[in-house]
Amino acid sequence: HFMLQKEVVDRMVAAPGSGDYGRLSVMLQYRYDMERLFVVPPGAFDPAPRVDSAIVRMIPRDFAKLGAGGTALDEELFGRLVMAAFSQRRKMLRNTLKEFGGETVLEQQGILPTARAETLAVGDYVRLSNALTGRRQ
Question: Please, which pLDDT band fits residue 66 given cuts at 50, 70 and 90?
């Protein structure tokens, strides 16, 4: 359990498609089951800060139970892929992921090349990363 600024916790637990969903969301949700428990108002502190805080629960994921479909085969590649996807947030994935095979590899994984990074779930990034790992080997 951690207490952080509410806006940070919102980004950590954000769902795909929301404005708060980003690289931080994907990388943390890949490793942890996360849940925002409650908001702590500024009046709970002395002196009171100018921001709300929030409590987040982070439970490490058991990769042994997830199997190959839930685990990135190459975590370094997974991290680079997520970073590239979110590097230019408003661009389509076919543009931000050109170095990874662009449109072709996206279509092979059932991902629209015109999609944007914030629309893909964590599992989509894992699947895409694993497909790229398989191509390299």
Answer: low
Q: Give the C-alpha separation, 56 to 72, whole Å.
A: 24
Specify the residue for token string 């999609």. 115
pTM given for the model:
0.90
119 to each of 50, 80, 100, how far by Cα in Å? 32, 18, 18
Task: Indicate the residue type of 111.
Answer: I
Taking a C-beta distance cutoff of 8 angstroms, is the pair 36, 43 a contact?
A: no
Torsion sign, CA atoms 59, 60, 63, 64: negative
DSSP assignment of 47-73, as one string?
Answer: S--SS-EEEEEEEE--HHHH-GGGS-S
For the stretch 89-120, pLDDT in tens is 889 999 999 999 889 999 999 999 999 999 99
- The total number of residues written for the chain in this structure: 137
The dihedral region occupied by 86, where left means phi > 0, alpha psi between -120 and 50, and beta the remainder, is alpha
